[in-house]
Amino acid sequence: MPRAFFLVLGVQFLSTLADNAFLIVAIARVMELSGPGWLIPLLKISFTLFYVLLAPFVGPLADAFPKGRVMLLANALKVAAMLLLLSGCNPVLAIGLAGFGSAIYAPAKYGLITELLPPRDLVRANGFFESATVCAVIFGTVLGGLLVSPWMPRMGLPFASLVDNPQPTALVAGMLVLLLMNAVAMALSLAVTDSGARYDPHSIHPKALIQRFVRENGVLWRDALGGLSMSVTTLLWGVGATLQLIVLRWAHESLGLPLAQAAYLQGVTAVGVVAGAVLASRFVGLAQAERLMPVGIVMGLLVPLLLCISSPWTAAALLMLVGALAGFFVVPMNALLQHRGCTLLTAGRSIAVQGFNENGGMLLMLGFYAGAIALDVPLSLLVLGFAVLVSGGMVLIWLWQLRQPVAATPHKPPQ
């Protein structure tokens, strides 16, 4: 692997670490302000919204400029988001600005991987990348729990006078830590070198970009392998984002854990994802990715077992197993989707299409969850519903895949 790949890996780790801790801190801020329960999924919706709204534009942006500079801009927006939170801004708006930066960042980081590496190394690279990302999720979730723990307010006392916040908060120290982390990620982005890849110029008129984006979506969905991997990752990202919040709620309601400790338990799932991702990177190639559908079905069937558990240690073991199956399943599917996308389109544009669909799935699922909270739907019914959605969805995708012949690679659409 080239040195530039590991630098991108480092920036990704630090940025993702801060993003996941930011969510926990933002949840704690909503609770500190005595906000209604449906505001918590709204935080995740706000973070994800720009992934969908900007999808037609961020791919061409990533392809039009050196991707290190795009990463620099993205991390600068995250720094601005933390400054807003420190100033007393509504946490939904602050995390939305961070999501704006992440939406710009996504096609740049993944596109750079496809530019730096040949196809034969993509699964291995994705194993590294997803392992680092999920490690960042683990430590970011744990860090978020630490930043909202009861002893952190004492560390923030020396800095409280420096923060102009009209609504007093005990989270100053945690916010300052996140500000520093995003600033370091921004500085590291300066060292990301240009891969040298260049793409044909095209119109930047919004109407033309949207029309082309619609065509590019069609290209990936109509491709046999592209459609399969897109269906799987869209379903899993949507359900996974919602289950992240459900696990926090379940740990509080069923196990009696406060937010800080519930965040630690949630991080255990990510440990399993790392293990599964490492195994997939070692033993699964691109050609084998489409044969892993039964793994996704089993993963969904395990989720309802949460309702039978009353011990944090048993819960941790189950969540680790579910995470391992998810990592083993998703990494090859993600690599397959990246490979088909780069083959049919370009690196940045294909990642933008992928992000649009996956984050659209997340918005849809989170919207349903927010509505369910507002309607006081029981937690047990939600867990069962999402389990049925995963396993049932995987069965339908698998049956569809078995009926689809692998088509020849079409030509790239017009620029």
Written overview of the protein:
Helix content is 77%, strand content 0%. By secondary structure, the chain is an all-alpha fold. It has one domain: Growth Hormone, Chain: A, CATH 1.20.1250. The longest helix has 33 residues, at 312-344. It is globular, with a radius of gyration of 21 Å.
> Mind describing the biggest β-sheet?
none
| CATH homology superfamily name | MFS general substrate transporter like domains
What Rg do the Cα atoms give?
Answer: 21 Å
Low-confidence stretches: 407-411
Tell me the number of structural domains: 1
CATH fold category name: Growth Hormone, Chain: A
> In DSSP terms, counting alpha (H) and pi (I) runs of 4 or more, how many helices?
15
**Euclidean distance between termini CA atoms:** 31 Å
The percentage of residues in β strands lies in: under 5%
CATH architecture: Up-down Bundle
